[in-house]
Design goal:
The chain is an all-alpha fold and 260 residues long. The chain is built from 8 helices and 2 strands.
C-alpha cells in the first residue's frame, strides 16, 4: 500500500482519493440534474463533511492518536483520520439550513445529492486502503492482505521494527468501497422513480452495509452494549431512513374523495 503517492513529494494518496471522489460526485450531481446553481451548496456540504469527519475522529481518538499531546496534529487531515458519520451529520445540518433558507424541495434535493454520496465515499475508502487504516480482522483467507511497515495496521499489531509487514487482514476498505459503488449504480437507476425514495434507499442501504461491515473490522473503535459506535449510528441512520421513507410515502398518497 502507498500512503504517499510519490516518494519525496507531499502528496498523500488518501487526500487524492478523497478529492477525486468528491469531484466525481459533484460532476454526477450536476450531470443528472442539469443544474449549475448548486456549486455553493455542494462546496458548503464538502467543507461541512470534512470538518465534521475530522471533529468526530478527533473526539473518538483524542487520547489514542495523541491529539491531547500534540494539538497541532488535529489539523493534519492529509495524514488520514476522518469519520464518515461525523461528516454526514454535519453535512445534513448544512443541507437542512440551506433548504429552509432557499425554500428548496427537501425530498427532491435530498434524492439528487444522495446519488453522489456513495460514489465519493467509495473513493474515500480506497484512500483508507492505501493509507492502511480501517482494516479488517486477521485472517488466513485467500482474500487477506498484508500492509507494509509504518502503516497504522502494522503499528497496531505491535510488529517489531524488523517486521516487513503486518499480519494478513481482511481488506474491509475494499469490501466497503465495492459495496458503495454497487449502491451508487442502484441509486442512479432509482433516481426520479419517486420523490424521496432515493434518499431513503441510501440511508437504509448504507446503514445496513456499515452495520455488518463493522463485524469484519478490527481497528480499535469505541463501543457500547457490544456494538461499535458506527453500528449504533447505523441503527440511528436506518431509523432516519425509515422515517424519511414514511414521510415521502405520505406526501405521495393522495387523500381519497367521497363523491356519493
Amino acid at each position: 500500500m502507498h500512503s504517499q503517492l510519490i516518494p519525496g513529494l507531499p502528496i498523500q494518496t488518501f487526500g487524492l482519493c478523497v478529492a477525486t471522489g468528491m469531484t466525481l460526485a459533484w460532476l454526477v450531481v450536476e450531470r443528472i440534474s442539469g443544474r449549475k446553481d448548486l456549486g455553493n451548496l455542494i462546496f458548503a456540504l464538502l467543507i461541512a463533511g470534512i470538518v465534521g469527519s475530522r471533529v468526530a475522529h478527533v473526539a473518538e481518538y483524542w487520547h489514542a492518536d495523541g491529539f491531547d499531546r500534540d494539538f497541532a496534529s488535529v489539523f493534519a487531515i492529509w495524514n488520514g483520520g476522518l469519520v464518515f458519520y461525523g461528516g454526514l451529520a454535519a453535512a445534513a445540518v448544512v443541507f437542512a439550513v440551506w433548504c429552509l433558507a432557499k425554500k428548496e424541495d427537501v425530498l427532491k434535493l435530498a434524492d439528487l445529492l444522495c446519488v453522489g454520496v456513495p460514489l465519493g465515499h467509495a473513493f474515500g475508502r480506497l484512500g483508507c486502503f492505501f493509507h492502511g487504516c480501517c482494516w479488517g480482522k486477521v485472517s488466513d483467507s485467500c482474500l487477506a492482505l498484508t500492509f507494509p511497515a509504518g502503516s497504522p495496521v502494522w503499528y497496531a499489531h505491535r510488529a517489531s521494527a524488523q517486521a516487513a509487514c503486518s499480519l494478513p487482514v481482511l481488506p474491509t476498505q475494499l469490501f466497503e468501497s465495492a459495496a458503495l459503488l454497487l449502491l451508487f449504480f442502484a441509486l442512479l437507476a432509482l433516481y426520479r422513480r419517486a420523490k424521496g425514495f432515493t434518499a431513503a434507499a441510501y440511508m437504509l442501504s448504507y446503514a445496513l452495509i456499515r452495520f455488518f461491515m463493522e463485524f469484519l473490522r478490527d481497528d480499535e473503535r469505541p463501543s457500547l452494549w457490544g456494538l461499535s459506535s458506527a453500528q449504533l449510528v447505523s441503527i440511528a441512520l436506518a431509523a432516519a431512513g425509515a422515517a424519511f421513507l414514511a414521510w415521502s410515502l405520505k406526501r405521495h398518497v393522495k387523500p381519497s374523495c367521497d363523491n356519493r
